[in-house]
Amino acid sequence: MAEMQGLVERLERAVGRLELLSAGSHRPPGDCGEVNGVNGGVAPSVEAFDKLMNSMVAEFLKKSRILAGDVETHAEMVHSAFQAQRAFLLMASQYQQPQEGPVASTASALSVLSLGPGLLPPPPPPPPPGPPPLFESEDRKEGSSPSRSALFAQLNQGEAITKGLRHVTDEQKTYKNPSLRTHGGQTPSPTKSHSPGPKSPQSHPPKKHAPVLELEGKKWRVEYQEGRNDLVISETELRQVAYIFKCSKSTLQMKGKINSIIIDNCKKFGLVFDNVVGIVEVINSKDIQMQVMGRVPTISINKTEGCHIYLSEDALDCEIVSAKSSEMNVLIPQDGDYREFPVPEQFKTAWDGSKLVTEPTEIMVSERPPKPLS
C-alpha cells in the first residue's frame, strides 16, 4: 500500500512540473493564443482529450471511489497519468513544429528525463545491426578462392588435361593379372603411401548350446539336437504341444496323439508322428522331411526351403498351407509306394474382364520320390 501511495505522489509531482512549464509561456491556461500564426482557443487535440476526461475517465473515477480501497488508489494513479498527458498536449499545442537536421542523442534524452524521480527510465538503445548474409559472403569467398580458380584453369585445358594422368602397366591391371583380385585389388601407386586401415573384427564361432529334450508343463521342448537319429517321445497326451527349435541332422519320432507341433529354425531334420489334432507348422527351416503315420488336419509351411511331406492313407484329406517357401513336395501312397506331387511355387495372374484370376503354372510330376523316413 505504501508503494502505491508513493507512485501517486510521484505522478502528482510530474503533473505539477508540466503545469509549471505550461504556465511559463505567459498565456492563460486553456488558451492556445497564436498557434502557427493563427489565433484561436483550445487546440483540437486538447479539446478531444478533455471530452475523454469528462466522459469515460470521469465515470471510471466515480465508480472507483465508490469501491474504495486499492481500487480507489489505482484510479487516482490513472487520473494523475491522464492529467500529465493533458498538460503535455497543452504545452505541445502552444509551440510551432520544430525544424528537422540532428537526431536526439541518448545524453539529451537522459537530461530531459532527469527532471524528477517520478518518470520512468529511458528505453534501451536499439540492437546493433546483424551480420551480413552467410551465403552471400561464402559465395564471394568461393568465387575468389585460389583452389576454385585452379580447378577452372585445369578444366579449360581441354584434351591436354590427360597429360597429367599416370600410365597403368599390364602388371597393375586386374583383368590381366588375376592374382591382384585375391590380394584386394591393384598394387599401390609408388608415389603414394597407404596407411593400414582399421582391422575388421574377428568373427566368433557360434555359441554351443546344450541339447534339450524335456517336458515343461504341457510343452515338449526339443532344442539344439545335432546328429541324433534316435530321438523318441513315446508318452504323449492330447493337451500337450511340441516345440522343436534349432535342430539339425536329426530325426524325432513322436508316438501317440498330441495337440500341435512346431518346427522352427531347423536344418536337415526329420519328423515321424502318429496323430496331431491341431496343426503342424514349419517356420524358417531348410530341408525338412515329415511322415504322417495317422491323421493331421493341417500342415503349414512358411519361409522354408525344401519340405517333403509323406501322407498316410488316413491323412489324404490334410490341408497344406504355404507362404514364401520353395521346393515343397507331397508324397501320396499308391500301390504300396509313394508318388510325389510338387506344391506350386509359380502362379500366373490374368484379368478376365471383371477381376484378377490367379492359378498355378503346370509343374512336371516326379516319378522317383525319395524313400520315407520309417
TrEMBL record:
Ranges annotated as biased composition (Low complexity): 192-202
Pfam families, alphabetized: CAP_C, CAP_N, CAP_N-CM
Residue ranges, compositional bias (Pro residues): 119-134
C-CAP/cofactor C-like domain segment(s): 205-343
Domain of life the protein comes from: Eukaryota
SUPFAM superfamilies listed in its UniProt record: C-terminal domain of adenylylcyclase associated protein, N-terminal domain of adenylylcyclase associated protein, CAP
Residue segments, region Disordered: 114-148, 161-211
Gene3D superfamilies, per the entry: 2.160.20.70, Adenylate cyclase-associated CAP, N-terminal domain
Compositional bias of kind Polar residues: 175-191
Family according to the record: Belongs to the CAP family.
Protein name: Adenylyl cyclase-associated protein
Organism lineage: Eukaryota, Metazoa, Chordata, Craniata, Vertebrata
Gene giving rise to this polypeptide: CAP2
